[in-house]
Amino acid sequence: QDKVPRINRDELKAMMGNSDTIILDVRAPQDWKGSDRKITGAVREDPRNEITAWMDKYPRDKTIVLYCA
Fold this sequence. Notes:
Helix content: 10-25%
Strand order of the largest sheet: 2-1-3
Oligomer: single chain
Number of strands: 3
Radius of gyration: 12 Å
Order of helices and strands: HEHEHE
Structural class: alpha/beta
Largest sheet: 3 strands, parallel
Shape: globular
């Protein structure tokens, strides 16, 4: 079984603005709407939808970072 690597805040900050990185906000709708903290440039994807419904929109040669907290 493959493990998905985790990164910390500093690692994410270093990746931000890099054209090879796509940041996806996959928080639950109520958590996303109620939050005043959002990563600038992150793309919103609804986690209630099947991941296969939206993952094909993103190039496979990019680093994709998903966050939910």
